[in-house]
Design brief:
This protein is of the alpha+beta class. 17% of the residues lie in helices and 32% in strands. The chain folds into two domains: 21-105 and 112-119, Immunoglobulin-like (Sandwich); 158-281, no CATH class. A five-stranded mixed β-sheet has the order 1-9-3-6-5, with no helix packed on it. The radius of gyration is 30 Å and the shape is elongated. This is TIGR03749 family integrating conjugative element protein.
């Protein structure tokens, strides 16, 4: 009887094994990852982060692409020649490249398993990234065990890293945006009142986007010249509490020309741009600065007496 039970258990195990779904692990080491497809079959790519998918127009009608909850769903309706897709992290801007190609299904061919993409911890450092070599990690581990944790020192100052990241997101092609670990997109009111930002210049200011890294914010502001002639942009004319200020272009051309618009990058510490503008950081009652006059006393007479 015991042998019959073991035989049944063995048969049950063999029966259950084919129903398990394997997952192919691909390691991202800044080399394009090959993800073959079969026409009519959907293949799932797990990346465990929210991404935007860049698809060439040449395959847009033959490839259905959906992205949700850290997974990308790919389904080809026709054969597709080798094509490169771009996956961009919506938070950090980091890119992952996929090389796909779709072939017709063959008789007896198994269904392609899902793919999971994992990061390579030994990848080289990128611009503004914190040190990650083995010695630094070991040293950080010892310090963590012996003293309270402190923010790691960056090779490049945070304002420089944030300004460069914002400029790339607005001006550079998607494939050239440097990944910046830890950066977060910040909600920003597009109707923010910026009339006091550059009160001495004939420009119109409009907030475009904002990002945060550690305790610092960078806000991109579009400046449009509303007058004629050329004007120089001087950061000393800005009104507000800013850590750094950088103009994309040093001058603005006459209104109506391609040179009449540029972008200003403002870095603030501990708070965003709305809390760093002049009215928010320097509220006062103008009446408090006037001379105090006693009731019934004529201010003009007091001045004549002096």
């Amino acid at each position: 009887m015991k042998h019959h039970v073991l035989a049944w258990l063995g048969l049950l195990t063999v029966t259950l094994v084919p129903s398990a779904h394997a997952v192919e692990i691909l390691r991202w080491e800044r080399l394009p990852l090959a993800v073959p497809l079969v026409v009519g079959q959907e293949r799932i790519v797990f990346i465990d982060r929210n991404v935007r998918v860049g698809v060439p127009a040449s395959v847009g009608e033959r490839l259905r692409v959906q992205s949700a909850g850290g997974a990308v769903y790919l389904r080809a309706s026709e054969p597709i020649e080798p094509t490169r897709l771009q996956l961009q992290d919506t938070d950090s801007g980091a890119l992952i490249l996929l090389d796909i190609a779709a072939q017709p299904a063959k008789d007896g061919e198994p269904v392609l398993e899902p793919v999971r993409i994992v990061e390579d911890s030994s990848a080289p450092q990128r611009y503004g990234q914190q040190s990650s070599d083995g010695e630094a990690v070991a040293r950080a581990k010892v310090q963590e065990d012996t003293q309270p944790s402190q923010p790691s020192r960056r090779e490049t100052p945070v304002p420089v890293v944030l300004t460069r990241f914002a400029a790339q997101n607005l001006y550079a092609p998607l494939r050239t945006v440097e990944p910046l670990p830890g950066v977060m997109r910040v909600n920003l009111r597009r109707d923010m009142d910026l009339d006091t930002l550059l009160p001495t210049l004939p420009v119109r200011a409009e907030a475009l986007a904002a990002w945060r890294l550690e305790d610092q914010w960078v806000t991109a502001v579009r400046l449009t010249h509303t007058g004629g002639g050329w004007i120089d942009l001087d950061p000393r004319a800005l009104q507000g509490d800013f850590l750094t200020a950088t103009f994309q272009h040093p001058t603005l051309g006459p209104r109506g020309t391609p040179e009449d618009t540029t972008v200003l990058y403002l870095v603030t510490r501990g708070r965003g741009l709305p809390q760093s503008l002049l009215p928010a950081i320097h509220r006062f009652d103008p009446a408090a600065l006037l001379p105090q006059v006693a009731p019934g006393h004529d201010l003009k007479e007091s001045g004549d007496a002096q």
